[in-house]
Description:
Layout: H1 2-13, H2 17-39, H3 42-59, H4 70-91, H5 108-126, H6 130-141, H7 146-153, H8 157-179
Helix pairs in contact: 1-2, 2-3, 2-4, 2-6, 3-4, 5-8, 6-8, 7-8
Amino acid sequence: MQDDEESLVRRAQKGDQEAFSQLYEENFDKIYRYIVLKIGSPIEAEDMTQQVFLNALRSISSFKWKGIPFSAWLFRIARNQVVDYVRKRAKQATAPLTESLASGERSPELLAEYSLNIEQMLSATRRLTPAQREVISLRFSSELSIAEVAKLMGKSQGAVKALQHSAIAALRKALTGAVEP
């Protein structure tokens, strides 16, 4: 697959729109899940994911193939987008808006429970260290392997496994503590 990806990147660098479209299709969901977990807003995450790919398209000529998956470069762009978003958001004094989850099939009680569960999970992840959040996001939202996460984060696979283990333990503790009276 890596040879295929490398040839796609080279074709995209030469202006082949079909090649870039294929890279987009192969990576969109992973990048989107990473961003939505980081910022918590599906609508904003979709816009930001589009921006990641626009930025990638504009600067693909500067991409240097080093044997690391193309997605690593996209995740770096996404991470920068998230950092910019968080900084911008911190400067604005706005009240958070709740997204309507209304549906004809869902009762208000189920919607409230769903919203509470999401808030509990977001609250629990905020208690993790930045490195633990990054590992959880990349492993489970973006569905990357331990080896891929290790390359992206510049850590050993053992360090990534340790971070993942401690993050899951911390989440389990935070979430079971939130459920128990």
